Amino acid sequence: MTQKESIVIIGGGPAGLTAAWEFVKDGGAEHYDVTVLEATKEFGGISRTVKHNGNRMDIGGHRFFSKDDRIMDWWKNILPLQGAPSYDDKKLGRHHDLEPGGPDPELTDKVMLKRHRVSRIFWNHHFLDYPISLTPGLLKALGFKLTMEVGFSYLHSMFRKLPEDNLENFYINRFGRKLYSMFFEGYTAKVWGRPPKEISSDWGAQRVKGLDVVAVLKNAVLKMLPKKRDSSQVETSLIEEFWYPKLGPGQLWETVESQCVENGAKVITDARVSEIRQQNGKIASVVYVDSKGKSTELKADQFISSMPVKDLVNALAEAPADGAVAKKAAEAAEADAKAVPADMIHVANGLPYRDFVTIGLLVKHLRIQNTTDIPTLGDPQIVPDCWIYVQDPGYKVGRVQIFNNWSPYLVKDVDDTVWVGLEYFCQEGDNFWNMSDEEATKFAIKELTRMRLINGPTDVLDSHRERVQKAYPAYFDTYEHMPELVEYLDSFGNLYCVGRNGQHRYNNQDHSMASAIEAVGNIQTGKTSKRNVWSVNTEKSYHEKK
């Protein structure tokens, strides 16, 4: 019997758990000894589901959609698609293409729902289409004069393109300077804490993708045609139908973790990686610290990391090089310098992140009227949106989620209460981050009241505040030197960086999973180049064509 290849996977989020399952499924544990180290007690990273008093919060909102068929099939194999109407489907007389033989959401939890996406922009007390499109609603909200300014500004941008060396120019080239100043400039600064002119255009290329005014208009025209389009023909930002686990995204990752353990993987929680030790140009072991402060060294043949790149490089710098544990301090310091070059430490420590606070408010009802033709559960004043982008600069809140519309099973009393989440972008340690739960909740209630979405504090029945560190890798400061850091990390032949924070790339969930699948494939086949691992979510064709 051949000896198993040992694998250590750092992180129990989408990338780490995808990698683990790829190794151990179909009897893979006979060939691979897999250990997952998760720093917390929960699985899914920012794709986890937070449970509070019978209600559930989705951190950031996660649509389960991908142009990569491997990922869609992967999800469906973990949680099968619904084969019968869900609670809200029945109540609203809503019809989906149900999966023949699929489970009934009313009888089992292990099921993936089909959802209709509605997202709009809140601006100047108007609800506008998201993405921005030239509809009668927008024209009415803007008025004749502003509409003409927007139109001429866009025409000007069509004939006079700016160099796309920053995010501001990227947006202006696609939407015109006037729409940019109204809907993108302030919101982008709200999200990132920096003006768009200081941010790399790479972020726009990944998130906005092929979207511009022409794409929006083309999509609007095609929607009116009788022929139903496959999701692969639509820009990701315009996708209108998606899948969603009955009990939120964390349910899927909790299920994956259970299946990994059942199939032979070892999962260790409360295991924060503090050192990564190398020997002869390869990674030799990791050291993790448990909740009691005890350190444990774990050796392996291959290492897959989804921990933040900044933390990864600092863990390498913390560890003695070439096993020089017993060297004198000066010699150890010199060995450390050789192990991780000073310029690489500088790049890693300069990589910026944006942190995130979400405040859940359970309210009796919303004050606004549903003026769409889409029916909603319970109170007729609940709007059908999954989330609302607050692009009005008068508010700190960036988005408002309505959990009732993601899944009725996220809300304990879905017919009589509305469970909303207010999402705030901030920096760890800033004034908003450091607010007490009571202060942050009061702030959120005040903003929701000013937005005229609720009447005031008496409408609020319950609340919960959740902080999320390093939610969004940012594209400024030392980010321009990432290629050099990638080259350095790739020099360790048995280290693979995957996932959003593992690659310092604003990946969606499916991109993180795809990077892990590529890494596992390389290990299984002996492929040495890691270009395929890093190229997920970078090639334009990935976004625009299937």
UniProtKB/TrEMBL annotation:
The UniProt entry, under InterPro entries, shows: Amino_oxidase, FAD/NAD-bd_sf
Q: Signal peptide: which range, if any?
A: none
Species classification = Bacteria, Bacillati, Actinomycetota, Actinomycetes, Bifidobacteriales
- Source species of the chain: Bifidobacterium subtile
Q: What is this protein called?
A: Flavin containing amine oxidoreductase
State a single Gene Ontology molecular function: UDP-galactopyranose mutase activity
Q: Which residues form the Amine oxidase domain?
A: 15-313
- Pfam families given for it? Amino_oxidase
Organism superkingdom = Bacteria
Record-level GO cellular component terms: cytosol
Q: Which PANTHER family match?
A: UDP-GALACTOPYRANOSE MUTASE
